[in-house]
Amino acid sequence: MRRSIIHFSLLSLLLVLTSACEKTPVPSEDPDQTVLMPYREAVQSLGAGLKGELQKAMKAGGPLAAIEVCQQKALPITQDVSNAQADGWIVRRTSAKLRNPANTPLTEQEAAHINSADFTADSEILEVVQKDGKPHHLYMKAINVNNPVCLNCHGADIKPELAAKINQLYPMDKATGYQLGDVRGAFVVYAPIEE
Ligand code: HEC
Predict the structure, then answer these.
(1) Domain that residue 101 falls in
(2) For the whole prediction, is pTM greater than 0.70?
(3) Which of 29, 46, 8, 10 is nearest to 187 (CA)?
(4) What residues does ligand 1 touch, defined as CB less than 6 Å away?
């Protein structure tokens, strides 16, 4: 199977691969940006949607109420962002320490990256993988604990009533004990490509 793992710095290799496959020339000026841009835009859109909902919920009812809002709205928002992309695209989030089992990696490659010690706060990965028997781009970008607000629900010292609520909604929760600056997970995009 032809497979290549390309970190950001090695993107030129991928460009050769994909441009050969797709038979469409990749514009030569700033080619790295050209390939990554739609993926970056898709995950920015998901990030903005989730952030907006979280901020609204925290303002309205504090973290206890916001947990329920996250539980009810995070997946529908994710689905909406996926649906707004080109056919066959999947936009999602995952983590090495999951809270929501629905965010479990969809492929071995996604799992391998998120569980790798090499996946750090500035990681951005583009790789060609097989998904459902078809070649796809797998794009991943780190999600970091970049704001103290995250620590309310993912930190090392969670208030007892919040911890109880989290355990009630997510009995298998692993997504606590984080500190500011830690990698919390990743945005993930799958996009079918021509071969
Ligand atoms: C009010 C509580 C709360 C706050 C604050 C919060 N989260 Fe979460 N987080 C949750 C809940 C509940 C889930 C599970 C629901 C979902 O999003 O799928 C979750 C899921 C996630 C996931 C998806 C992976 C998984 O484990 O399921 C990521 C990534 C994440 N949070 C990152 C963050 C970051 C980064 C911040 C700070 C900007 C943050 N969270 C703030 C409650 C919170």
Answers:
(1) 4-22+30-192
(2) yes
(3) 46
(4) 54, 63, 66-67, 70-71, 74-75, 93, 95, 98-100, 103, 143, 145, 147, 149-150, 152-154, 175, 184-185
